[in-house]
Design a protein that fits this description.
single chain; alpha+beta; three-stranded mixed β-sheet; 22% strand; elongated; Foldase; DUF6033
């Protein structure tokens, strides 16, 4: 994983929690699964937003106690037509036939 790219899962992990994970293989396995889930959720959310013409940047944070939080910021993608624009154009094409 790389931090700061929209094509990867961004995860910031507390150094204290990384130390805990390094000393507890069960805990490490648990959070490796959690990070895998994060990746799936990121992909799903990004696709949903892209379908309506939005581009999102998002990420996750794991604090020193293992609590997980997430963030996301989005903006209208000027290169992609919105869902409503596409529907309007398709309706217009249908009416012209």
């Amino acid at each position: 994983m790389k931090y700061g790219k929209s094509t990867t899962t961004n995860v910031a992990i507390s150094p204290q929690f990384l130390t805990k994970m390094a000393n507890d293989s069960d805990l490490e396995d648990e959070y490796i699964k959690e990070i895998g889930n994060m990746k799936k959720l990121d992909e799903q959310f990004a696709k949903q937003q892209a379908d309506i013409g939005w581009r999102v940047e998002q990420g996750w944070a794991i604090d020193k106690d293992g609590n997980i939080s997430s963030w996301a910021i989005g903006h209208k993608d000027s290169k992609v037509k919105s869902f409503l624009q596409n529907m309007s154009e398709k309706a217009e094409e249908t009416l012209q036939k």
